[in-house]
Each structure stands twice: as C-alpha cells, then as structure tokens.
C-alpha cells in the first residue's frame, strides 16, 4: 500500500520544481548557459527497489539536513550530464568525448552542487517557513551493476517507502538529460506538515 497521499506527492513535485528551479538558476550563472528543468514526475517505491532503477555508473550526490529537517536528500545524475557540467565549468564547450571523471572534474562538480543545493535549501526554507541548513554535498560515482554497491541510506529500513522525483534538465545547446531525487516518505510527510502550516498562515 502507498503511504503518500496524492496531496503529499503533488507538494513534493511543486517543491521540487521551485527548489530545483532556483538550483538551475544558480547553475546557469556558474556555467553561463541557459538551463531549463522540466516539472518533475513523482513516484513512490520501496527503498530496497530503488537501486534497480539505475544501471551502470551514475553520479550520486548526498546532502544531509543539519537543521530544520532530518534526513538525507539524494540526487542521482547521469555520468554524461556531470561530465558536461564539469567541462563547462572548466571553460569547455560541454560537448564531451568521454564521460570519464577525474578528481579535478569531480571537485568542480562538487563545488557546483554545493552552490546549487545551497540555493535549493534557501528556497525550501522559504516554502516551508523554517530555517534549513545542509551539510556540504558528498559526490561519488557508484556502479549500479555491482551487487555490493550501497545506495545512500535515504531511509534506514529497506522496506520503507521513498519518493523518487524525476527531472529533466536541458543545458542550452546540449541534449536533454534526466536526473532523480530520492527522499524518504517520512521526510515528505514532515515537509507537508510545514508546508500546509505555512499555507494556512499565509
């Protein structure tokens, strides 16, 4: 049985749209290119099934809430998209021959993610009416074809539900690419509480 109500799913989509919109604005300032992120789709599944949604090497960005909310906010990005972002940050055209990411590229992307997730947290603070702080994002390459790969613990219990929010990003002049946000259903419910309280006060 699903644990998220349609209202909670709508809210997480709406919040994702606004927060990622402000993250995209930040990224477009860093890269000097227009960036468009589509309105996301939201689905719910068990934590234990999330890993099988992805294959091959992906870049996983984990951000922990240190104030205002509790839990982990995890992004899964196509390795190619990350290589493109790294290339643009380093003054390239974004038309990459290889998806290989070395330490220099990863740290460049880490810096971009830091600024992006910072602005997403700021807009989330405004939407929920609470002060939110986050840890610096942890950026890693995970191979989803390896059975031993541990997906970040969005929830401690594999049987629990998570929301998987799917976005599409288009960087000016380059092909579209999908990326995903994974957050626990419990955290979504908590956000919904704050969100509805803020709406009723407004």
Radius of gyration: 16 Å
- In round numbers, the mean pLDDT is 93
Distance between the termini: 33 Å
Task: Count helical runs.
Answer: 5
Q: Which descriptor suits the 3D outline?
A: globular
Unreliable residue stretches: none
Helix proportion = 40-55%
Tally of strands: 8
- State the major sheet: 8 strands, antiparallel
As an assembly, this protein is single chain
User: What is the structural class?
Assistant: alpha+beta
Write the H/E string, N to C: HEEHEEHHEEEEH
Q: How would you portray this structure in words?
A:
- This protein is of the alpha+beta class.
- Strands 1, 2, 3, 4, 5, 6, 7 and 8 form an eight-stranded antiparallel beta sheet that branches.
- A hairpin with a 5-residue loop joins strand 7 and strand 8.
- The model has no long low-confidence stretch (mean pLDDT 93).
Features of the shown structure:
about 200 residues; alpha+beta; globular; 8-stranded antiparallel sheet
Short description:
42% of the residues lie in helices and 27% in strands.
Give the SSE map.
Elements lengths: L5 H26 L3 E3 L3 E6 H4 L6 E11 L3 E8 H11 L13 H26 L4 E2 L3 E6 L17 E11 L5 E8 H17 L1
Antiparallel strand pairs: 1-7, 2-7, 3-4, 3-5, 3-6, 4-8, 7-8
């Amino acid at each position: 049985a699903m644990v998220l109500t349609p209202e909670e799913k709508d809210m997480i989509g709406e919040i994702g749209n606004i927060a990622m919109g402000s993250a995209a604005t930040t990224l477009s300032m860093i890269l000097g290119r227009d960036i468009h992120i589509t309105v996301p789709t939201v689905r719910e599944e068990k934590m234990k099934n999330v890993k099988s949604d992805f294959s091959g090497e992906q870049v996983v960005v984990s951000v922990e809430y240190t104030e205002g909310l509790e839990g982990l906010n995890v992004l899964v990005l196509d390795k190619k998209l990350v290589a493109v972002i790294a290339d643009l940050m380093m003054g390239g055209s974004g038309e990459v021959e290889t998806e290989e990411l070395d330490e220099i590229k990863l740290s460049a992307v880490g810096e971009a993610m830091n600024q992006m997730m910072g602005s997403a947290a700021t807009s989330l603070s405004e939407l929920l009416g609470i002060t939110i702080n986050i840890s610096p994002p942890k950026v890693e390459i995970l191979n989803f074809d390896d059975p031993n790969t541990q997906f970040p613990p969005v929830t401690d219990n594999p049987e629990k539900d998570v929301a998987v929010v799917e976005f599409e990003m288009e960087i000016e002049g380059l092909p579209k690419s999908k990326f995903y946000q994974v957050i626990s259903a419990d955290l979504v419910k908590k956000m919904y509480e704050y969100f509805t309280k803020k709406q009723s006060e407004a």
